[in-house]
Amino acid sequence: MQTIGVRELKANLSACLRRVKAGQRVTVTDRGRAIATLVPADPVPELEWAHAVVAKGQATWIGGKPLGLKTRVRSRGTLTSRMVIEDRR
Length: 89
Description:
The protein is of the alpha+beta class. Helices cover 37% and strands 17% of the residues. A hairpin with a 2-residue loop joins strand 2 (26-30) and strand 3.
């Protein structure tokens, strides 16, 4: 569990909420005393495995969507489905 002061929480709220969304628990302190704990809302059942991997420290995730490929794969004038079938042969 991570600890964060009120002033630092105000300055970095978005980053802190991303960590909480990823499954971490964050304790908020005021002058060194714990005053609150931020915990993730009820997890989505489909994402429980991802939160478990993040909690174990085996991966990091800030809850965003994958960005995809940097460069787009160009079609050679044929349908994508046909290209996939050709690659599978």
